[in-house]
Design a protein that fits this description.
The chain is of the alpha+beta class and 221 residues long. It folds into three domains: 140 residues, no CATH class; 31 residues, no CATH class; 44 residues, no CATH class. The protein contains nine helices and six strands; from the N terminus they run E-H-E-E-H-E-H-H-H-H-E-E-H-H-H. The strands form two sheets. A four-stranded mixed β-sheet has the order 1-4-2-3. A hairpin with a 5-residue loop joins strand 2 and strand 3. Helix 1 crosses helix 2. The longest helix is centred in the last third of the chain and has 21 residues.
Amino acid sequence: MKTEKVEVSSLVFDHNLYPRFEIDDYCITDYARAMEAGAIFPPIVADRKSRRIVDGWKRGKATLKFSGDGAKIDVEWRDYKDEAAILLDAISTNTIHGERIGRYDLQRCAILGQQFGIREDLLAAAMRVTPDHLEQIRAKLRSTRAGDVIANKQVGAHLPLVISVKQADGLKRSGGNNQGFFVNQVINLIESNLLDTTDERLMERLAHLAKIIEPLVAEAA
């Protein structure tokens, strides 16, 4: 396998070909820390013609986070006959290593495969599922309006009757929709000086909270 060192900033992160539901910032931070400690990662796979990353999104993001735009990274160039071939390889490489692929990721792969006109048997093989399982995923998507679910009675009036699977999953994890309780808990921990400020992961999540709260408060003002 021949690789070439290129500036990571010269590669293209194309969301239209990313097979996962979302990018895990936790994983990117963990990769960056591992790089700082001297860990060696496999080369990124990219399309030679378009320079789009096929496999190694988080490795690329972690390199940018750790070393900046001028950092160089090993890249294995591959040639593809069309967009569908790029997507198939992206799905295949993401399902055999790295972060575990979840049900929302599989749903996204099924949707992308249909959009790119990929044969069902080829798509199922790339996803590492049986054709029957792929059809079950499609049936679920059809019954939930391609990823929407009907909200349960716990959902507040501020949410529509039909919400996304991500919103529904968030409601399940929160144990309901008593939002004031959770906000008050965070406020109490901060005002009572009870937070463990030596916990790096905790402080990263608080920084993320501050980042997403600011535009919400500004919009409501």
